[in-house]
Amino acid sequence: xxxxxxxxxxxxxxxxxxxxxxxxxxxxxxxxxxxxxxxxxxxxxxxxxxxxxxxxxxxxxxxxxxxxxxxxxxxxxxxxxxxxxxxxxxxxxxxxxxxxxxxxxxxxxxxxxxxxxxxxxxxxxxxxxxxxxxxxxxxxxxxxxxxxxxxxxxxxxxxxxxxxxxxxxxxxxxxxxxxxxxxxxxxxxxxxxxxxxxxxxxxxxxxxxxxxxxxxxxxxxxxxxxxxxxxxxxxxxxxxxxxxxxxxxxxxxxxxxxxxxxxxxxxxxxxxxxxxxxxxxxxxxxxxxxxxxxxxxxxxxxxxxxxxxxxxxxxxxxxxxxxxxxxxxxxxxxx
Length: 335
What we know:
There is one protein chain. By secondary structure, the chain is of the alpha+beta class. The chain has one domain: DD-peptidase/beta-lactamase superfamily (Beta-lactamase, 3-Layer(aba) Sandwich). Strands 1-3-2-7-6-5-4 form a seven-stranded mixed beta sheet, with helices on both faces. A hairpin with a 7-residue loop joins strand 2 and strand 3. Helix 2 runs antiparallel to helix 12.
C-alpha cells in the first residue's frame, strides 16, 4: 500500500461523458465515414472512494507479491467499474489514463466500429464477414482482424505509397479513430492491424517507425466494455451480439495457457471455485504485454468490468488473476 498511497491521496471525482452528437449532413452513399447516432446520451461514471481503496489494495498487494520478479508499479494499469446499479455506475483506476500498446484487446474496438457500419447500412453482413468477425473475437485471429480493418476502412495492404496516395490511405485508416473521438473517447489510437509476425509495405509505412502504433488506456477499454454490457453501444441488439462473441466458458478444461477463457481472469474464477459465475472477455498478449478486459457476474450478485494491462511481465500469468481474485473477495463489501 505504500506504493499507492500518494496516488490515493490525489483522487478526484471524474466523469466519462458522451457529448451529444451534432447534426450530420447527409453523406454520399459511397462515403467511407461511419455515420454517428443523433441520440447519443450522457454516460456518467463517477469515481468511488470506497472502490478506489479496494482497487489500491488489490493492486498494491499484487505488486508487492511480484517484487521478487522485478515488477515495477508502472508495469500495471487497471480500471474497475461496478455495474450492480446501471444507473449509478462507480469506477476506480490505477494508471487508468496511461496509453499502452493493447495487443488484441483493440479487436473489441474494431468489433464495435464494424457493428456501427452495419447498423448504418454502409456495409452488409455476409457469411465471410461473419466468419472474420467471429474469428477475430472468439479465436483472436490476427488474419481475421486484418480483413476486418480492410472492410472498415476501405483499404488494403500492398507496396509503399507516394505522398499523395498515402495521405488518402492514412485518412481512411483513421476512420475508427474518428468514430470513437466523436463519442468522447480520448487518449487512444485504433488504426493499425494486428500481426503474428510483422507488417510490410504501406502497413509498415503507416506505423511510422512505431510512432503510430495502436494505443489504449484501461479507462477507455473499460468504458467500451461497459457500454457493450449495458447495451449502449450502437444498439441493444448489436451489443448483445458482441457479448455473445465474448462469452467465455472458464469451467471447461484447456491445455492452452493463452486461452482467453482460462489463461487470464478466468484463472481467478476457477481458483475461487465460482462455477456459477459468468465471464465475458477480450484478452491480448505479446512477448512484452499481457492484458485482459473482462466482465464478470457472480451468483451472489456482483457485476463488474475489470480491465488489467501489464507490460514487461508477459510471462507472469498470475498477475491478472491475482488482482481479479482480490477484487472478487472484497467487492461484495463495497458500495
